Please model this.
Amino acid sequence: MRCRLPMTAFALTTSLIFCPGPSFSETAPSSNYKVLASEEVGFNVSSLEKLLEKGDEAVAQENFEEAKQNFKKAREASKLLLSFYRDLSGAFRGLDARIPREMDAKGRKTLILLSKANLRLAALLRRQNQPEVAVPLLVEVVRLTTPAKKEGQKAYQSLVELGFVDTPYLGAR
Model:
């Protein structure tokens, strides 16, 4: 028994001497893992804003096909994001209130960007003498944002200008 303590100390000392230096795993910054949060290539609200900006720049340069493609990409991505945010919000309801609040806030921003993409695409289609293709986009904006919001009012006003509806909305005044 008296030998046990010195033998244990000897074994520990020997193992410390012969093993290589301490090995700490280096953790990369969390920004490397949050690829989708990146403003350049991410799948988030700021990437939608960039697509809309690219579309606006293409319109300014009268490159309407490129603008149409950017607005369509923004629409598709915003619909996907909106769906994902809603799904996550519903999954965490009743479990952790912070997550549904965050997803709902991101969803509201995405909904506004979807409305803006629809309005810009509809304006472009009207400019290209395709008003019949613009009508569903405008109706979607009114449905999503309601006529109480600025985007909904713009969309309804465009529907009046196109002659799709006759009654002007007076609640905006």
